[in-house]
Every structure is written in C-alpha cells, then in structure tokens.
C-alpha cells in the first residue's frame, strides 16, 4: 500500500501517538492485537471512500473527516443519570454501559447465579484467558473492513458474555449503552458474546445518546453460537439527528445452531451496518433481518455477507425499509455458497417503500455460488405506497392517517413479526407508527431533547 | 336516501358523467345497467369519493347532507358502502384487525365506544354465517390470495359488518360462479330492510334473478337514458343497449 489519505493517516498517526496510553488503560491480552490491527487498517487503505465498491453509498472517509474527540481514559464507573429512561424491554436482565464501557449492576448478580459470565473484556482476558484467546477477534480479525481493524486497534475494553452449556435464560439480556460526553466523541465499542452448546439466549443491544453531541460509534460485536445453541441478537438503532452509527456484527455458527439477528434502524444521521455470518458446520439455521425507517436526510446502509461454508445449512435474509423526505438507503446482500456447501438453502429479500420523490433506495443482491446442488433465491423491490389500498380502507370508514399507518405497519410486518421478544415487538411497532406520524422516536422520559438542535 | 341531480364528473380531463340524475328512497333496490364505458363504475367511484374523479357540476344529497362535501371516510361513516368491482389486496393487514378498526371508527362517529372483544367476535360470527364465509379467510390478510368469488363474498361480509344505509355494489356478480352468486345475492337479500337501500351496478341480468330490483335504469354515455320496472332488465337482456342509445 502506498500513502494513506489524509483522514486515515491522521488516525494512524494518532494511534502511534496514544498507543502507550491505550495500553495503560487496557489489558496485556487486548493490547496484543493492536499492532497487527493498525497495520491491517493501513494495508486495507484506511477509510474507504465511495470509490470502493463495497462502500459505494456510504463515505466512511468523510465521516471520519469530522474532528471527533476520543476518550482514552474512560474510567468512570458511574452511570451518568438517574435511571428513569424509557427502556425498550422491562422484563429483562439489564446491563448498563457508558460509552461502550460496562458498568456492573445488580442484574449482573442474577445472571451470575445462573452461571453466566458477564464481565469486561479486560477482566475476561485475565480471568477467562482460554475463552478469550479462543474467541476474541477470531471473526473480526479476518474482516476486510478497515473500520473493524480500527476498532481492534483502539478499543480498550467492552463487554464479555459467556452463556455456558445447556443454559437457558427466561428473559432477554438487555444492553443499554449510554453515550455521554461534553464534546463530540468517537466511541470504539467492542463486545464478545459466546453461547455454548445447547444454550439459549436473547440479546437486545440498544444505545442512547444522552447529550446533544455528535457521536460516532464504531461498534464490533462478535457472536459465537456453539453446537445446537440458539441465539438471538437484536440491535435497536434509535439515537438522534447527529449520531453516526457504524455496526460491525460477526456471527459464527457451529453444527445444528440457530441464530437470529435483527437490526432495527430507526433514527440517526447516518447508519452503516456490516453483517458477516459464517455457517461453519452442517445443519445451521441463520436468520438475518433488518428494518429501516429513514426520513429527512437520514442515511442507512446495510451490507451483509452470509457465508455458507458447510453443507446442509439454511439462511433466510430479509431487510425492509421505508424512505421519506430526502433519505437515502442502500442494501447489499452477498450470499457466498462455498464449494463444499451442498444442499444449501439460502433466501434473500429486500423491499423498499419510497414515499417521497426525493428519497432514494439502492439495492444490490450478490450471489456467489460454487456448489452445484443448492437452492438460492433473491428478490429486491422498490415501490411506492399503494394509494388504491388506502382508498379501499377509507371507503370502510378508516381515516386517511390511520389507513396510512396501517399500511406502514403492514409493510414492516414481515420483519416485526419475527421479533421473538413480544415486548420489543410491541415497542418497535409503536416507534414505527410514531416516526411515520412525524413524532419523536426516542425515549419520552429522556430529559434530553436533541432533535434539530 | 340519496338524490343525485345533474351530476357531471370527469377523469383526467375526460368527461364521463354528463348530467346524471337519480333518486333512491329507503327500502328500495335500484339496478343500474348499461354498456361498457357508460360511466357505471365512475358513478360508484364519484359517490364514494375517489379523488381521481373530479365533479364539475351537480349535486348529491345523502340523507339531506351534501355528500360531495364529505371525505371518503366520512361518507362511509354516514352510511355509504361501496362494494368494489376489484377488491384490493392488502398484504400484512389482517381481516380481523381491519374490520375491528373500521367498525370502531363507525361507532366513534356515532359517539359510541368500540365493542368489547367478545361482542365483536359475536358479531363477526353472526355475519360470517350470513355470507357463508370461511373462518380461514378472516384470519388472513385483507383479500390476499382470495379467489374472485371469495373477494366478492368478502365485500358482502364487510357490508354486513358495517351495516350501511346505502350500499352501492359495483359489478358484484362479475367473476362469480353460480354458487358464489347465490351466496352473494342471498347475503344482500338478507341485509335488505325498510330503512336501507341498495344500488346494484351490473352488466348482466343474471344477478337480478337473485336480487329483484324495484327499479332498473339504463346508463349510457354518462346519463340515465331509460328507467323502468324490473322487467326492463329482461328487455335489455333480449335486445341489448343499441335501441336505447341510437
């Protein structure tokens, strides 16, 4: 690689400058990954611009061109607020994070009683070294996305959850990450979730911005489902007008496992989700879902790669979006069926409902099939609201607004009906309605009204 | 019930209704027949408030109120029902939810609370029996994947649920086999009362063997060109429309 462009060089230099400080605030184990990661960041060419095919619709370079602060001494162990927030799910084990750093609370004890290990990554790297070494950066380290390498270089800490064999949880584990800062901030959040064989768990990951600052979160989540495990991971992206969300989600599945991931993109200035799923052993089921509502000048880009490495695996992928105002969205879904992955069944659908003349939806399915006995399909639609259906509803006495709301909810139904946490499903449906009616979508109890400031 | 006077309406600048007048009183069933392109469906759409059509002249009084001044939904809640020629499929909106909302809106308009869940289910069951509609259909999305006959039955089922004062049935017989026709007609007959009225728009005399109208009107080139008793339908069947439009 020749010279890095200015923004990338700046971060490369910054790393060199602050590496000792990062090391000091992290663990030796975590530090061992940094050097290789920053060089990988460099060799991948740094931040991609829209000239890079996989980033055609989202300019990462310009996102990092903004002068964000970076907090390397986040040692606060307190939550920055009195907990009166309108949390997504009340019936859950709730874990709190501040700017990506885990802050233990009493729900942790309950989880520990059930044998679940919940701790910081630093602690895991010391106390559970075998597990840490076996899993940490195993998927992320193979990624060709330079922002993932950047995260590995900079992330000092994060959350570690280990669900032991045959453990089933009665309630979801809910992660509430609060962004709190006195200046604009870049956060490299990093989580590692391991679901052991025959264990069953639901994760709900939700980030709230508490201050009217520009926040850029570059999050890496690695989720491993061992033999016959069942894991669900929901990511609720509902921040505010100045937030940029970069989510890099890696899923590794072993034999007979089932994983459902759902990304719910409701509110942020810019969102880019990279999802990579590896079906490594036979007979895995994977469901990768997403819904996005983008209005005003919001931008949502979902980039997914489902890798069928082993035979007899099934995957279902469905992303649905509604666009309004001057919103832009992109969906790129890549299904890669490896040579040995015979009897693969892989299905992919992306549907877009475009409500305004100025909104733009891009969609790009990609199938790479190397095996010869597989069943794959993909479908993409970009359409407008069915005015005739609204008229039909109106002739039955249903007012226009209500008919409109019904149509929106119906459109999203194929994704929302797959949410396995009833309370979350209900809440998402309400949030969709609110957003469609132009109301706020973030939590109503929040003192902080960041919209349009 | 409804009094239409000198109604003119156009779509995309093309005049379709050219001075149509018609009065329907409570307890009556009127049939409107006529050749293709005469304006039959336009009349149905104009009365129910489809915005694609523009009324350029004329007046419609519905129970003494200026109908053309009302929104689509308010016309429905005043008691006007349109049975669609081509009922729209609405994936993702369940029949039950749709009916529940529509029924509650009608009640709200009259200052009433929505029915309780059990009351609503009771009503649903009662009306389902009336049109012999399969429970499987009411558990699905609105009209989604319904056969032609099921869609038409579903229109009559909705009519039964909403209990309108005036029902306009647009080509309800089209695409029906004889059994479905019998069920649909049977449903309409059972809903017939002294205080409601029906306008049947149809191409064929066949439906009128099952639903006997009090009056038959011939609509041609945007106007009613002939009105008469039910026997007029038979005459039309025999002679066609040419002798009236020449």
- Indicate how many domains the architecture of chain A comprises: 1
Main beta sheet of chain A, described?
11 strands, mixed
Return the CATH architecture of chain B: 3-Layer(aba) Sandwich
**H/E order of the elements of chain B?**
EEEHEEHEEHHHEHEHEEEHH
Structural shape of chain A? globular
Poorly predicted spans of chain B:
none
DSSP helix fraction of chain A: 10-25%
Alpha-carbon distance between the two ends of chain B: 32 Å
Radius of gyration of chain A: 21 Å
Provide the β-strand percentage band of chain B: 25-35%
Helical content of chain B (DSSP H or I, runs of 4+)? 25-40%
How many beta-strand elements of chain A?
21
Number of helices of chain B: 9
Q: Helices and strands of chain A: which structural class?
A: alpha/beta
Report on the biggest sheet of chain B. 6 strands, mixed
What proportion of the residues of chain A form beta strands (DSSP E)?
A: 35-45%
CATH superfamily of chain B: P-loop containing nucleotide triphosphate hydrolases
Poorly predicted runs of chain A are none
Cα separation of the termini of chain A: 41 Å
């Amino acid at each position: 690689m020749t010279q890095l462009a200015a923004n990338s060089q700046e971060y490369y230099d910054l790393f060199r400058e602050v590496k000792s400080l990062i090391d000091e605030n992290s663990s030796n184990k975590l530090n061992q990954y940094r050097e290789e990661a920053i060089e990988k960041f460099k060799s991948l060419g740094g931040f991609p611009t829209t000239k890079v095919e996989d980033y055609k619709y989202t300019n990462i370079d310009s996102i990092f061109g903004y002068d964000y602060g970076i907090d390397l001494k986040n040692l606060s162990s307190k939550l920055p607020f009195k907990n009166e927030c309108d949390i997504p799910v009340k019936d859950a084990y709730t874990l709190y994070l501040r700017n990506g750093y885990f802050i233990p609370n009493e729900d942790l004890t309950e989880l520990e009683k059930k044998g679940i290990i919940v701790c910081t990554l630093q602690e895991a790297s010391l106390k559970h070294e075998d597990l840490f070494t076996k899993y940490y950066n195993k998927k992320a380290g193979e990624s060709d996305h330079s922002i993932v390498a950047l995260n590995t270089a900079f992330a000092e800490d994060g959350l570690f959850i280990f669900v032991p064999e045959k453990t089933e949880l009665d309630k979801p584990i809910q992660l509430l990450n609060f962004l709190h800062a006195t200046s604009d901030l870049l956060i490299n959040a990093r989580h590692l979730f391991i679901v052991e064989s025959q264990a069953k768990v639901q994760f709900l990951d939700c980030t709230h911005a508490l201050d009217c600052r520009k926040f850029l979160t570059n999050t890496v989540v690695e989720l491993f489902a061992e033999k016959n495990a069942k894991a669900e991971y929901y990511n609720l992206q509902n921040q505010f007008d100045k937030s940029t969300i970069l989510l890099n989600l890696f899923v590794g599945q072993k034999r007979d496992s089932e994983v459902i991931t759902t990304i719910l993109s409701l509110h942020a200035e810019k969102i880019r989700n990279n999802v990579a799923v590896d079906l490594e052993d036979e007979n895995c089921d994977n469901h990768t879902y997403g819904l996005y509502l983008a209005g005003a000048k919001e931008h949502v880009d979902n980039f997914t790669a489902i890798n069928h490495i082993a035979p007899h695996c099934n995957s279902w992928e469905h992303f649905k979006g509604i666009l309004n105002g001057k919103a832009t969205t992109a969906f790129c879904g890549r299904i890669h069926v490896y040579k040995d992955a015979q009897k693969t069944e892989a299905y992919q659908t992306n549907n877009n409902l475009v409500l305004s003349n100025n909104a733009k939806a891009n969609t790009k399915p990609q199938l790479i099939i190397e095996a010869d006995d597989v069943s794959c399909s993909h479908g993409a639609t970009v359409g407008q609201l069915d005015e005739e259906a609204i008229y039909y509803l109106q002739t039955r006495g249903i007012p226009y607004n209500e008919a409109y709301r019904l149509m929106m909810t119906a459109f999203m139904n194929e994704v929302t009906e797959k949410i396995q946490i009833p309370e979350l499903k209900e809440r998402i449906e309400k949030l969709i309605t609110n957003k469609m009616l132009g109301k706020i979508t973030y939590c109503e109890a929040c003192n902080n009204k960041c919209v349009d400031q | 019930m409804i009094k239409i006077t000198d109604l003119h309406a156009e779509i995309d600048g093309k005049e379709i209704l050219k001075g149509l007048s018609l009065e329907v009183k409570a307890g009556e069933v009127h049939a409107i027949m006529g050749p293709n392109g005469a304006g039959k469906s336009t009349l149905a759409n104009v009365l129910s408030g489809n915005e694609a059509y523009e009324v350029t002249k004329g007046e419609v009084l519905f129970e003494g109120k200026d109908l053309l001044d009302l929104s689509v939904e308010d016309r429905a809640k005043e008691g006007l029902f349109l049975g669609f020629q081509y009922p729209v499929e609405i994936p993702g909106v369940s029949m039950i939810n749709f009916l529940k909302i529509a029924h509650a809106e009608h009640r709200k308009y009259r200052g009433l609370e929505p029915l309780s869940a059990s009351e609503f289910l009771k009503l649903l069951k009662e009306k389902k029996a009336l049109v012999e509609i399969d429970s499987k259909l009411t558990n699905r999305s609105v009209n989604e994947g319904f056969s032609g006959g099921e869609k038409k039955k579903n229109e009559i089922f909705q009519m039964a649920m909403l209990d309108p004062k005036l029902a306009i049935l647009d080509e309800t017989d089209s695409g029906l086999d004889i059994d479905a026709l019998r069920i649909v007609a049977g449903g309409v007959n059972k809903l017939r009362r002294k205080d409601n009225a029906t306008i049947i728009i149809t191409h064929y005399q066949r439906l009128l063997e099952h639903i006997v109208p009090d009056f038959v009107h011939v609509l041609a080139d945007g106007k009613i060109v002939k009105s008469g008793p039910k026997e007029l339908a038979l005459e039309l069947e025999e002679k066609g429309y040419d002798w009236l439009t020449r």
